[in-house]
Automatic annotation (TrEMBL):
Residue positions of the active site: 68
Keyword Hydrolase: yes
GO biological process assignments: nucleotide metabolic process; purine nucleoside triphosphate catabolic process
Name of the protein in its database record: dITP/XTP pyrophosphatase
Organism: Hydrogenophaga borbori
UniProt catalytic activity: dITP + H2O = dIMP + diphosphate + H(+); XTP + H2O = XMP + diphosphate + H(+); ITP + H2O = IMP + diphosphate + H(+)
This protein's UniProt keywords: Hydrolase, Magnesium, Metal-binding, Nucleotide metabolism, Nucleotide-binding
Record's GO cellular component terms: cytosol
Subunit structure: Homodimer.
InterPro entries xref list: dITP/XTP_pyrophosphatase, ITPase-like_fam, RdgB/HAM1
Length: 205
């Protein structure tokens, strides 16, 4: 089964492709099909993920899956949240993962409460007008470090310290990270929903 991924992020594609492999699902990035990114005007992850999935499904004619994820910092009232991808631009930097990390470390330089969570919401649709979207969420709580630690991963991985593991996400091998990450949690929940709703055995006649 081929699904269009409503994202052009290569890191997301690699992580989700590994996680979806057990179902024999092949993910293709929307950019490879010439589909532009959808607007993300909403203030919650689930609303934006649904909008992106509907857009990708409508433009491609394929089932679609979309991920909306972000960093929610306790000291900032849950922000940057859905604006995570553009966090750097709010503080005078160009858009980009490394600039996001730089801006975050600067904004939290004198902040004592380092609690934060990486949150992921996945939405899957059989077609653009699917009235019953599958929705799965994952949440990885941790602490923001005071400097970058580790060389793996992407996004905020170098500054997201997971107390239960004693390491940042960027210090973990991809397989270990996928077991504990917000996106890994959401993907596993989505796999179960797909097995139940989309791939269940045909009932006897």
């Amino acid at each position: 089964m081929k699904l269009v991924l409503a994202s052009n992020n290569a890191g997301k594609l690699a992580e989700l492709q590994d996680l979806f492999a057990p179902l024999g699902v092949q993910l293709v990035r929307q950019a490879e099909l010439g589909i532009p990114e959808a607007p993300e005007p909403h203030r919650t992850f689930v609303e934006n993920a649904l909008a992106k999935a509907r857009h990708a499904a409508r433009e491609s004619g394929l089932p679609a899956v979309a991920d909306d994820a972000g960093l929610c910092v306790e000291a900032f009232g849950g922000l940057p949240g859905v604006d995570t991808a553009y966090y750097a631009t709010q503080h005078g930097y160009p858009k980009g993962d490394d600039h996001n990390v730089t801006a975050l470390l600067e904004q939290m330089r004198d902040v004592g409460d380092r609690r934060a969570a990486l949150v992921s919401t996945l939405v899957a649709l059989r077609h653009a007008d699917d009235p019953e979207p599958l929705v799965a969420t994952g949440r990885a709580p941790g602490l923001i470090t005071r400097e970058r630690v580790g060389a793996h991963g992407f996004g905020f991985d170098p500054v997201m310290f997971i107390p239960a593991l004693g390491k940042t996400f960027a210090e973990l091998d991809p397989e270990v990270k996928n077991r504990h990450s917000h996106r890994g949690q959401a993907a596993r929940a989505m796999l179960e929903l797909m097995r139940e709703r989309w791939f269940s055995p045909t009932p006897p006649v």
